[in-house]
Amino acid sequence: MVKMRRMLAHLLPPPWMLLRRSFDAGALQAIESAVSAAERDHRGEIRFAVEAALDVRALWRGESARERAIEVFSELRVWDTAENNGVLIYVLLADHDVEIVADRGIAAQVDAREWESVCHEMEAQFREGHYAAGAIAGIQRVGTILARHYPGRDRAGNELSDRPHLI
Known about the structure:
Elements: H1 2-11, H2 15-22, H3 25-38, E1 45-51, H4 56-61, H5 65-75, E2 86-92, E3 97-102, H6 104-107, H7 112-127, H8 131-149, E4 165-166
Parallel strand pairs: 1-2, 1-4
Antiparallel strand pairs: 2-3
Helix pairs in contact: 3-8, 7-8
């Protein structure tokens, strides 16, 4: 029964409708700006990715949001930063789930419960329909964590795109 309910949540409504309803163009621009602003205070890198729903094969295998977040972390090359301090904030809309995947440099310094706290805060905002506000609050909290461990922005450039990635 749970598997069937999850399948329906992922297959109906169409993914583009979930994305558009939750994150319109204004929200995506605000999220990009929040990532840029957060990265001014530290040497870390933040990526924000939103996936409307998993495909049928992933659902049939019972792939979790966490497993998918790890795949996206790799696909977006969040691990490919000079100081191994990239952080992916992954949102799976159909499951109402947020996952944070941190590269080994920052993961070794931050307790998993701290990342989970950020996820729960974002999920609470999303349940209220405040997608942009929840995303921005999460980005700011991740930025604060990164600033604590990687203060300053002493290198030029931006290693990863600040633009939200829609899947």
